[in-house]
Protein: NADH dehydrogenase
Amino acid sequence: MAREGGFDVVELGRRPGGKWRIGDESAASDLEGAIGLVHLAHSWANASEAAEEENVNISGTLKLAEATKAAGVPRFVFASSTSSRKEALNVYGRTKFRIEEHLTASKAAPIARIARIGLVYGGPRTAMYGLMAKLAALSPILPMIGLSRKVQPIHLDEVAAGLLALATGENQPLQTFVLAQEKPISFAAWLRILRRAQGKGNLHFIPVPLTAALLACRATKLLPLIPTVDPERVLGLAGAAPMESSESLRLLKLNLSDPAMVLAGEFGQTHEEQSRREAQALLRYLGNAPTEIQLKRLCEGLRREGLSPLGLSPTMIRHPALLALFEPPANRTPHRLAQALYLADLASEPERHPGKKAGFFGAILAISSDVLLFPFRALLAGRYR
Structure:
């Protein structure tokens, strides 16, 4: 993004060909002439609660910040986290807080800008974002901690834009900025957004105590075929609390996107595509071979009534007969699926070809089918209420 903006970029780091690791002395030639430095590095190999001089994340950050000031660079941007708190449950949050304290008291304080970054999503599905996406798609029933905890998502591109604004823009009246959504959402709502963006149905939770979750983290390291979960991430979530971000976003001129819309595009699952597939499934369930006119009519009706997308799972879209297990009794008109099926019936009526009337045995078969399906519908019909 910086290069696209016309900046020359010098990368210091441990990638192949890199010439710097956190804690190393920085060559003045790498820093002189720069208009800003963005510090993203963090070592996970450090002792959990090492003293300041032994913690390379603290000592290394201070060393780099002071070298940046000595080289005449006007801005040093430190990538922190919204988990940064003195009493954070996870080591990462406590370490970030300690770095912030030392940075604001150091010789580099006049050029230091701290960016507390929220829950990052988008881009490569790795790290915390990749883990959450996998867990959300794994099963419609998910054991999870911290469901009521508030999180503040922000897209990777928006983080980059905010960091670049701090590194290259005018001096700001604040020293600490919060890069995160203004309106926090519950962690449960966030996981549901991730699941729906991947074309899955609704997500139900089994609340898990923190102690049990930490034990499960150890188990994930031993069991195959399931994602390994670091206890640090669990503790970070358990201690999550929202931070005020509106002033920071205003100063940096950032307008954050709706995560649900962005993720739908990134996962290739737009609302229009999902609505069309659901409309096809509803019409096929009613015994119709959908025409283009019927699909357009039904999609418009579903959208107008606020029923789109319903959240039908990919399995039900492929096999519409499964909708019989979820269809509520005929008198349950407030039910979303019942309303959608009613609209599907109306949408197909003008082009419907008259068929044979069901005889006595057909009626008996239909009644028997309803009786057999009743227990399933009693249990499952609430899914699309």
Notes: The CA atoms of residues 36 and 45 lie 27 Å apart. Strands lie at 37-39, 76-81, 112-117, 119-121, 141-144, 150-151, 153-155, 176-179, 185-186, 204-207. The first helix runs from residue 28 to 31. The mean pLDDT is 85.
